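Why should sequence recovery work at all? Because a backbone constrains its sequence more than one might expect. Tight turns favour small or flexible residues, buried strands favour hydrophobic ones, and helices have their own preferences. The token representation captures these environments compactly. In the example below, the structure is given first.
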């Protein structure tokens, strides 16, 4: 396996759906094109935001095939692996390699809260099912399995485990991982409203959610943070943070897709049992997004035009 050098902004890409909740592969492809032109460094399909667990096995394969075709090799494309059993996860990993994915973002098996021995056995089995490099996804808040620094250390003998998406909502974990595992793993922030703190503590990548609705602001924040331009980064972060908080709610899929729709970059349709936002909740989220849309014109000029014209989306 060649050395993996993942870093930068990797959107957790939304899966676009038609009004009847069927896949809209053409719209998903257009969204991938927009994100790629905005300058993202990679794509993660079928993570939580991509509604992985709400799609059928056949639909997942169709989304992956479509994503590989849309990306056209310009950036690495990873597939989220979120199956209910180890056998299904292994089959999915194998299919992802056959389809042409560049890597996997692997979650613990869904539904059952495995202990450390069970979780590491699952991860080792999935690693053995394909030749693809793997980003380990730790999100104990949502998935009830905590891949502690000690658990990660127990997996360092498997070369395919190259990165960790740390989403424990505890930025101290990044330092603990480095202290226990050294520089063995590429560290990614997995929580939008902790990204600035995560970069300061050693994260070199960001699995981002609100990038689906605000791609240029996301890329500009990443550029500033990566360059150590902390004053400018803090200013933009403070403007961005009400939006980034939307990534940390149980309804993050609905929130992000609604923001995407309000920004004119997609639709808000989600797959049941998720439903479109309604009532006071819808009004509250809409107010946050519209305020951001209305006030981003007041950002500094360099934040309004973060990329050369040739790299920006037209229209």
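From this structural description, the recovered sequence reads:
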């Amino acid at each position: 396996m060649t050395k993996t050098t993942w870093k930068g902004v990797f959107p957790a890409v939304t899966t676009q759906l038609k009004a009847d909740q069927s896949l809209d592969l053409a719209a998903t492809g257009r969204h991938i094109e927009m994100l790629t032109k905005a300058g993202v460094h990679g794509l993660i399909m079928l993570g939580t935001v991509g509604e992985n667990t709400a799609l059928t096995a056949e639909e997942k394969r169709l989304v992956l095939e479509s994503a590989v075709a849309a990306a056209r090799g310009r950036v690495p494309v990873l597939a989220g692996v979120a199956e209910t059993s180890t056998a299904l996860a292994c089959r999915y990993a194998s299919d992802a390699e056959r389809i042409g994915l560049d890597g996997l973002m692997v979650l613990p098996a869904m539904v059952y809260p495995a202990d450390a021995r069970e979780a590491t056995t699952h991860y080792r089995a999935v690693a053995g099912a394909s030749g693809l490099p793997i980003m380990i996804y730790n999100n104990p808040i949502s998935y009830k399995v905590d891949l502690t620094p000690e658990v990660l250390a127990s997996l360092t003998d498997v070369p395919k485990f190259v990165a960790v998406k740390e989403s424990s909502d505890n930025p101290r974990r990044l330092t603990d991982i480095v202290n226990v595992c050294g520089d063995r793993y590429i560290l990614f922030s997995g929580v939008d409203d902790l990204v600035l703190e995560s970069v300061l503590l050693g994260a070199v990548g960001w699995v981002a959610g609100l990038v689906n609705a605000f791609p240029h602001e996301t890329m500009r924040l990443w550029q500033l943070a990566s360059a150590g331009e902390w004053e400018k980064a803090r200013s933009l972060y403070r403007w961005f943070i009400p939006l980034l908080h939307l990534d940390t709610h149980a309804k993050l899929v609905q929130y992000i897709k609604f923001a995407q729709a309000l920004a004119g970059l997609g639709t808000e349709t989600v797959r049941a049992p998720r439903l479109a936002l309604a009532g006071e909740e819808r009004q509250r989220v809409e107010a946050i997004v519209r305020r951001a849309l209305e006030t981003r014109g007041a950002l500094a000029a360099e934040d309004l035009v973060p990329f050369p014209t040739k790299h920006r989306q037209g229209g």
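A few observations help interpret the result. The longest helix spans residues 279-295.
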